[in-house]
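Subject: sequence -> structure tokens, single chain

Hey, anyone have a minute? Need the predicted structure for the following. Not urgent.
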Amino acid sequence: MYVQLIKDVALLVALTSLHSMLARLRRKGEIWPRLASGLLFGGVAVIGMALPFQYQPGIIYDGRSIILALAGLFGGAITTAVSIVAAGTYRALLGGVGVWAGLASIVVPALVGLVFRRACEGKPENLGILPLYGLGLAAHLLMLACQLLLPWPTGLAVIGRIWVPVMLIFPLATLLTGLLLQAEGRRAGAEAARWESEDRFKHVFESANVGKSITLPTGEINVNKAFCDLLGYTEEELRNRKWQELTPAEDVAGLQRLLDPLLRGEKESARFDKRYLHKNRDIIWCDVSVAMRRDAQGRPLHFITTVVDITASKRAEEESRSLAARNFALLGAIPDIVMEVDRDRKYRWANPAGLEFFGEQVIGREAADFFVGQQDTYSRVERLFGGDEQTIYLESWQRRRDGQKRLLAWWCRALRDSSGKVTGALSTARDITESRKAEEDLAVSEANLFSLIASTDDIVVSRDREGRVVAFNEAFASIVWSMFGAEARPGLQTTDFLSEPEKSRWDGLLAKVLSGEDHHEEFSWQVEGRTRHFELALTPIRAGGQIIGTAEYTRDITERRRTEEQLRQSQKMETVGRLAGGVAHDFNNMLQVISSYVELSLQKAEAGSTLEKYLREVRRAAQRSADLVGQLLAFARRQTVSPRVVDLNEVVSATRKMIQRLIGEDIDLAWVSGRELWKVKIDPTQVDQLLANLAVNARDAIGGVGRLTVETGNFISDQEYCAAHPGFAPGQYVRLAVSDDGRGMDKETMGHLFEPFFTTKGQGKGTGLGLATVYGIVKQNRGFIDVHSQPGQGSTFTVYLPRASEPEVVAEEEAETAALRGGTETVLVMEDEAEIRKLAGESLESLGYRVLTASSPQEAIRNVAEHDGPLHLVITDVVMPQMNGRQLFERLAPMRPGLRCLYISGYTADVIADRGVLKEGTRFLGKPFTLDALARKVREVLDQAQGDPPLNP
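Reply:
Had a minute. Here:
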């Protein structure tokens, strides 16, 4: 549970970061950020539920109560409702006995959060530590109470187990996450205030009644209306003009010398009187204040110039005072902080913004009283008070009236009396704390976003309202080149490459998205000669409450479609295989009875009689039925096999004559053997089955004269090959390919190729089990099969068998006993089919054995326990009700040391075989078997060397 709590804390930190991004996007009156916040809270709660601490099936615990309580406190009603729906829906889908308690653990903390929000009047950022901690306590006390909705007494057990970590950690996690959300909320508000402040600055610049200009180092000026009015020009006439053009030629060199120290960084500002040329060629005298703005590296950006017409002031002091009064009025009206200090560095005047920031007590206080930490502010303004500088810029950390540390950007200008003596300074300041942090965060965020978009293989592109490309990633450029042969660039209209119907449809989709709707769809397109499938998502891009374009996200899902189709086919084949195996098992039991009674009847029928003839025909029919069942079991991968390490070249070479007989003389058989072929582990008879079925399939596809090629070779499957061939696994394989030049197959036929009973042959010309048998054999040996075919171009079936990791062992031939031998040992026959049990018992008794029988495992155990004499062998079916054959033998072996076991079954089960492959040392007799075969197998098991250990199943 504590590990889960750590995961939940990580989710809460991620929630805080994402919620702060949404808070920056929120505008007054808009509902979508609240919906997005609701989805964010709900989504994080869903992630927490997807990685829960599970008390028992259906009862899970995670941090959703923390998330929902904070959603109620910080999100409000809409956000809370959306998060409840999202989290509640997912919890309902999880189901289980704890679903109602789980839903209550979502709703109740959310309602607690809403109550606390109402109590703080919708301002959660004002809550202190104790109220936030109280929220955590209240929400989780009620969450614990919700566990009483669990079935009795599970609820009390759950509360007893979780209440300590929940009440110790969850309220603290609620408190810490709430504090983070408070901080992010304040930061987002401050950033909005910064933008508003900049808007005010622009307004002041444009509406100022004195000339204002932003002048580039090269001389171009950007002026306000007052500047234009001062010189009698319109804004259009002064656009892109240089200040040198508005200055008498004889003054330009001297003014340039005044500006050079600012450009070199020797001075931050300058103030001087300057003559301008009016449009009517009159001379206008102006008081010019110039401050140099630099970037973070100290490079000059532009001059901020204030131009004041002092023509009249030179004629009359009274008009000069009037102008000064108007300037003070302007300073009092602007939103930035404006402060005046005397030569003793004491504040003697402040505008409303300054009083709001520092408080009313600032007047008469020394400026240093409000510094935070050691600063060199005084040394930097010394040149201003000494008369060396007219204007300076500096940044200083200041203590606000509420005690917070804030970064202010100051523009300070010296104040002089009528004699030119510096009497103090007038300074304007702007709080740039949040803007500086926002700039840093934005730079990091943009870098991360651009890296993420550039690294994805999915197509990402944004467009403007006219559908023109604005930004895109490399995947978009690649697909545009592949589909249209065009180079991706900003301003590209991809609709220019579409046909008229496609263009109309695309224009309709863009119109829908530009109206505010999202759009999702899947579509197909021909790319480089083949069909590819895509998943498209279109969403509107909003800025300032307006939709300015569309964002397009497209993913290539061709391989996913292909993999899903192969998975469906594999699941279908597996289902049919299980059905075939089950039917074959039951059918084998019936064939066993038929074969046994026919065998007994043949022993009593008169040689050469009609009855003997009829019985032999019945036996042949039973054998053909057994072969058909064997094919079903091969497909189902449940036939009994004895694999060994073999050289595939030797096995294939030995079957060439058999293959030639199957395909006939009209078809040429080519054999291409691979050199230094790796060994494989497989039952050689299965290789014969593979080749026989593939050869017959090829013969029927050729339908006359043609060519059949059998080829072997080594093959290494790597990760790249497996990625292009879903279902394959990396490794070393031996390849067996059978190719024909027959009529080939279409995609529809290939889709059903390995299904049992599917055939393209006429009525009575095929069972449809040949290729199904091939498929089962390949899968049973952990291999793969690949088919390539096109109509009219023949077919190639390629089988990949894993390379053997053990050395080749030369198989010893088992000599069959010429005559049946009986014995006097005691044998237990355990078989739930009454007829098979009866026939086996009578046959063994006729050979001298003492036979005990049982129809169920419990009866077998009871009979052995009650039997006083020795017991040498137990013959048992594999698949039985209540317990299987292996479990029965494990119960009987301790009761009779040295006891041996012989398994019989219609198919091999997991207790004795792995995918139908017998484990070493297992004695097995597959149904249907002859009574002679049973007698030989019993004798073989009993005749093991006296010192040999009993065979384990």
